[in-house]
């Protein structure tokens, strides 16, 4: 298992490469994510976002973006054409069509990329807390449709909110401990009802619960990958917290700052437009 920090954060997007047996894969798709400077990559089938179209064209002008509207689920599609994707909703895509560039949106949730170097199947999933488990569904789909083997699958876990900033209540902590691994949660330390928000800024987070916990979505997903038989030496972790790094979009950080500035909690509609949605992508 390898860890890597982000670089080139003065660009509009960052890219990273798959590894297998702890070695860089040369003949493999590139994957990455836009950053805050690119502006919002928000996607809905009934909305237009010209900025998104422009940035995706800059990332890979000769590939056709393959979008999906996210619903925080464990639904993964195997898609071979743009026509097959029209209007669909879910949180994961796999494909063998090298002319396509699967694209999902993220902002604190995990973008997880996968590539079967033997069968040339590639794709990505959006894994938030509700959808944790979706990477196992994507691997199962590749195994069912393409006879993929665990030892041939490489995984990249992209930038996401880390347990330094992701504080949850007792109910959610118990759910993750029981369904994934107890190691993914730890009780919030005394006096720790804050989370970092970049440049050492502390934003208070207290929902009145008697107990709060730090949740590591990374550890939950690593347990899933272990259960699927993915070798550790085929996994790359991009070690960057979206909430801490102000150059990245973050639902939790940006909506908290907006709420603090307004002096009130944002409505769901307001919250949806007060953070920078990023586009996670994979392409040849």
Descriptive overview:
With about 280 residues, the chain is of the alpha+beta class. The chain has six helices and 19 strands. It has helices at about 50-60, 135-145, 170-180, 215-230, 250-260, 270, and strands spanning about 1-5, 15, 20, 25, 30-35, 65, 75-80, 90-95, 100-105, 110-115, 120-125, 155, 165-170, 185, 195, 200-205, 210-215, 235-240, 280-284. The strands form five sheets. A seven-stranded mixed beta sheet has the order 1-18-12-10-11-8-7, covered by helices on one side. The chain has a five-stranded mixed beta sheet with strand order 2-5-19-9-6, with helices on one face. Strands 13-17-14 form a three-stranded antiparallel beta sheet, with helices on one face. The two termini are about 25 Å apart. The mean pLDDT is about 90.
- How many H/I helical runs? 6
Read across the widest sheet, the strand sequence of neighbours is 1-18-12-10-11-8-7
- pLDDT < 50 stretches: none
Largest sheet: 7 strands, mixed
* Number of separate strands: 19
Instruction: Please bin the fraction of helical residues.
Output: 10-25%
Report the β-strand fraction as a percent range: 25-35%
Whole-number radius of gyration? 18 Å
The helix-strand sequence is EEEEEHEEEEEEHEEHEEEEHEHHE
């Amino acid at each position: 298992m390898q860890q890597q920090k982000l670089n080139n954060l003065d660009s509009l997007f960052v890219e990273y490469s798959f590894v297998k047996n702890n070695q860089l894969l040369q003949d493999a798709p590139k994957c990455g994510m836009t950053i805050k400077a690119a502006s919002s990559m928000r996607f809905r089938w009934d909305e237009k976002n010209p900025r998104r179209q422009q940035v995706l064209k800059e990332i890979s002008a000769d590939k056709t973006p393959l979008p999906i509207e996210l619903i925080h689920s464990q639904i993964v599609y195997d898609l071979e054409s743009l026509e097959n994707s029209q209007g669909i909703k879910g949180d994961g895509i796999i494909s063998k069509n090298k002319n396509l560039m699967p694209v999902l949106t993220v902002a604190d949730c995990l973008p997880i990329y996968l590539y079967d170097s033997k069968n040339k199947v590639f794709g990505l999933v959006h894994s938030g807390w509700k959808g944790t488990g979706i990477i196992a569904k994507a691997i199962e789909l590749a195994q069912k449709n393409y006879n993929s083997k665990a030892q041939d699958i490489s995984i990249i876990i992209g930038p996401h909110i880390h347990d330094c900033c992701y504080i949850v209540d007792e109910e959610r902590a118990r759910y993750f401990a029981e369904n994934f691994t107890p190691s993914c949660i730890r009780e919030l330390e005394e006096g720790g009802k804050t989370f970092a928000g970049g440049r050492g800024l502390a934003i208070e987070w207290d929902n009145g619960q008697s107990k709060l916990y730090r949740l590591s979505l990374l550890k939950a997903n690593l347990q899933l990958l272990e259960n699927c038989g993915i070798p550790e030496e085929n996994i790359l972790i991009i070690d960057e917290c979206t909430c801490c790094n102000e150059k990245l979009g973050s639902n939790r950080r940006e909506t908290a700052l907006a709420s603090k500035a307004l002096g009130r909690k944002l409505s769901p509609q307001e919250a949806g437009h007060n953070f920078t949605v990023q586009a996670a992508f994979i392409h040849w």
